[in-house]
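Re: export button greyed out
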Amino acid sequence: MRRGRGPIDKADYYRGIRMVPYDLVKELAIAMVATLVVVLVLSAVLSSPDVPSATIQAWAKSDPVDFVTTAATELAGQSETAQYGPPYNTADGSVQSLGAIVPQQWAGVHVAVNAPLDFVLEPLSQSTVGDQTLASALSAFDAASPTQQQKWLNAYIQALAGATLTNEQVTVASGDYGPVPTLMSRLLGLARTGGLDALLLTSDHFYQTDYSKPLLFLGDGGYFIDLAQAQDLTGSQWGMMNETGRYPGQAWLWLYTLWYQLPPFTTASNADLLVVLVMTVLSLALLLIPFIPGLRDIPRWIPVHRLIWRRHYQS
Amino acid sequence: MNQPAPYFHWGFILISLPNLVLIIVMLALFVAALVAPFPHGGGRHRADDDD
Amino acid sequence: MTEASGGGAEAAPHASGEGVGGSAAPDREGGWTTAVRDRLTRRLSIDELLPTRQPAYVGSWVYVFGVVTIAALVWVVASGTVLALMGSAWWHTSSLGHFFNSIHFWSVQMFFIFMVLHLWGQYWGAGWRDGRAKTWMVGVVIFLFSIVTAFTGYLVQQNFDSQWIAVNAKDAVNSTGLGGFFNVLNFGQMYGLHVMLLPIGVTLLVVIHILQVRSRGVVRPIDDPYVPDAAPGSASGGRAR
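Workaround output, generated via the alternate export path:
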């Protein structure tokens, strides 16, 4: 190994090496033209994927029972988002840790989401004008104790397992649900108009580019996951590497997604954190190959280079 | 092209046909680059180095 | 501080301007500017940047992967520029827009394909030897940076794929504690990163990488290594081993 004494003079470095004319600019020009031709042909023949986005409106229209079930669990504070933890709230249902190392917790709440309020009560309170039934239902719900609210909601959620669609309304067996069915049917109606997509996005102000709330709400439902399953995008199907349709995906993520298919990552509750750590270590190893004995010597031991430079070695 | 892609299942490996094709093409390109002769027109050694 | 000598030196003709053989010594005021200039011109003169000769062993198709990666990146940026110019919703409603998105999509595939092939080639040739470890390292950083850039790109397509990727990736990002600062559900943040900040980063790194390669030259073959301090004029100077 050479000592770090500044760059090796090229004339000295290439001593004994035959130099030949080589047109770098022409090579780049040819590479650009060739690449462009290949890309244009692929684009013209195969186009690119563009499966339209899911909306809360589409969800409410095509699977109202799933929509109402999800909305009820949000209101009950039992959904994945409601129980998630940082950065959305102070719960801990989705907090991943490795022993005493809990970076998710340390980072704290920075994208505040209050599921019952943001996904159900706030949008509904925007729609009470001219709707006395809704206004009364909201007051009744607000006035009830948290215990009473949970009783109504748990009973309703359980009843939803056997729900049917009657005149476009989600109907369940009779029971003591308080104002919950009214709230849910109003929310469903709001969602069907597209109003809930809009309210979840622009609830604070006119201009908005942060889709956190609508996406978290969508993600809590079965409809969204079913769409992904149909496109083979879910994690247990190596989803990270895949693209919709017959297009190549992100083949370069193969090693990242590989871990999710192997124990213990398959069942670990902190699988994401574990995989991130493993990939960080491996990326560092890739970065530091020049300094890692063994790894840096493999090219010597397995002499693929004898093919690369075979003409040079022959002469 | 928007139809679901065919998938290949070997043990725990599950790969889509497009991704599999892409990886095979990459390997083929690498092997080809190793063995294919490189044109060397005008590659004669010149006594005067007039860089 | 150096007004007196500085002003005088500028007015006076170059002290040692022989002009013979093109080897006139540059004006020698010293200072930081001279230091930077000397360092740059020593390794990055225009002859070093655009040489017309290469070692004969560069005549292998494996050496083409790097330049094709650069070419693909050019088309990624060019097509991306058009997409950004026309706004993020354009390609969903315009067939010309969709065509430019396709160009962007396939040039990204080409970019990754040839970047990885280039990585394989450099690995099997042990391209980090003879003071080129930093070149390798910058290359790996470009690879990782590109993955993040592509990731933000997938997030800003504004279609189902974006939604799905966002909802799933959030858990991995959140687990690291970065979820509050790098919110994959926040289109505005991801778009700004993808369209401006990350491409600037990638381009800067690629420029550095190219300058590193040009300033050191292409590494010698493994079985014909550089032998320092061999006697000048020795016929087999480079082949003692």
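The longest helix of chain A spans residues 24-46. The button fix ships in the next patch.
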